[in-house]
What does this fold into?
Amino acid sequence: MIPAKFDYRRASSAEEALSFLGEFGDEAKLLAGGHSLLPLMKLRLASPSVLVDIGRLSDLSYINDGGDHIAIGALTRHRDLETSDLLKQQVPILAHTAGLVGDPQVRHRGTLGGTISHGDPASDLPAVVLALGGTLVVKGPKGEREIAATDFFKGFLETALQPDELLTEIRVPKVAGAGWSYQKFNRRAQDWAIVGVAAVRNGTTGIALVNMGSTPLRAAAVEQALSGGASAADAAAQASEGLDPPADLNASVEYRRHLATVLVRRALEEAGTT
Ligand code: FAD
It folds into this structure.
């Protein structure tokens, strides 16, 4: 449980972080809250030779009104999402779900940018950003680019981020008045989801699933069934259509499929018909 030896650099700005990434290339890893990266390093599943600490970049910690969307700095902690009045008004599903991540210690350290960049299919907030149809703003040596959340998650712990890029901002549409629900099924309150479902109904319906494949993903078959006029129960029956959920100590493949159906139905019923 002791990580391999590494060098440490503390970035004092996003530009300095990018310059460290340019200098050290694939050998470097960004360190935000450290709550996913450090456990991987202790298990020797990751062995970066340089850690570039971005955890103190306070200019990347904000929740701002961007007109038709809310702009959230990548270094914003889960606890700040949970307690933000702006988010509670405009994107309540994000504030609510942030309050379900791990325990208070995790929520005080972990960052929204960290959980999105890590791309863990078991994480709660990537699914919420997917269901909302969010956009990710990324900076690299060639400048800034925007990536739709639906195009961001590529494989297990693999995203569209290049090794020399920094996720700087997460944009989510304002959905005040929309129906929404986040269903997290776990054994103890602070545990990771065995399966989770995020639903946002705002004219159209966005549904995303936690722990039902190798990435956070949209429940395309459910969304299609709903747009064709299916009832909540009939649409929910499609929850695991075309998906390949994992089996682990907590759940078999069949149990995950069953949970997905039940949780999608509950999410649709709670979100209502808006
Ligand atoms: P880090 O660990 O610092 O980084 C993770 C990865 O993202 C690294 O590869 C890093 O290089 C990269 N990275 C970080 N920031 C950026 C950036 N801005 N741009 C580019 N790359 C970046 N999560 C849940 O969703 N639900 C849970 O119930 C849950 N329970 C937890 C329980 C425990 C005990 C622990 C330790 C963690 C738990 N987590 C849970 C994970 C937690 O939410 C982490 O905070 C989160 O996954 C990663 O955020 P971080 O800021 O700690 O990222």
User: Anything to note?
Assistant: The first helix runs from residue 14 to 24. The pocket of flavin-adenine dinucleotide is lined by residues 29-37, 39, 74, 101-102, 106, 109-111, 113-115, 117-118, 123-125, 161, 166-167, 192 (CB under 6 Å). The chain has eleven helices and 14 strands. The domain at 58-173 is CATH 3.30.465.10 (Uridine Diphospho-n-acetylenolpyruvylglucosamine Reductase; domain 3).
